[in-house]
Known about the structure:
Strand content: 15-25%
Amino acid sequence: MKQIYTFGKYLKDKFGVKVYKTAVSISGFTCPNIDGTVAKGGCTFCENDSFSPSLDSAKPLKGFYLNLNSDENPFLEKQLLQLETQFNALSSYQRKEYGIDKYLVYFQSFTNTYAPFETLKALYDKALSFEDVVGLSIGTRSDSITDETLEYLGKLAKDKEIWIEFGIQSVYDETLKRINRGHSSANVKEWILKAKAAGLNVCGHLIFGLPGEDKKMMLETAKQAYEWGIDSVKYHPLYVVKKTALANEYARGEFTPIGEEDYLEVLNEAIKMKPEHVSVQRITAGMNDDSLIAPAWCRDKNQQVRNINSSLKRIGFKY
């Protein structure tokens, strides 16, 4: 049985100790297809609070949003304090509960390069100053990063573990348009290649089950993402949550979520074609509260993983 190369294994091999990603959510950050720069309303599947576990501590800055052209940031000191408060709380919990030794500060929610360079530099530098932090992982979009920021991250990467996470989702522009993504597949490819050239590690997010896509299209997305040189991957099934445009499509009968068997089939094929050095950071996703509308199989993460392992076993893999 072949063990799938996980991100945890990658980090343990590199640092010799347990390393965890510690997620932070900084208020003032948004997204260019939420603020109207490239689109309005966000991606059709996105309910922003659903991936923002730490945003409660960001409420003091509610209504304040940055973008690449912001002239000033009067709340930078408050953002830096949020960063420190969130990191200290979560890293202490992780150390106590899981015996973690080192950390990557994970800028998770919204688009974490979508702000003036001086703001980003201050936040990244602050995160790297924390005790036992060995690097950063920065979630962003390919249309929301500048060459200046990329160059700076490349300099940091000479001494620190620097990851940038891009939402690839699909390589089909018709799909990206349908989900209101706001950028093209060519744009994602361009910035992944730029990030690699700058010396950064790249994690690509892939969604299986997007509207209008069949299994062949889903696998073509995985194939091209691997070819672009990503170092790690997150696989997601598309699920429907409340207060999203996708929920409205589902209610009108215009979208049918991917079934579990179909997801397992695509996932197995994607893993079989994955280069061995590409680590896996996530193999499925879902919600275990009443915000989930469909599919029901995405509610129980533990059951999902059991079913995935049973499926992988048939092709000689273990997660």
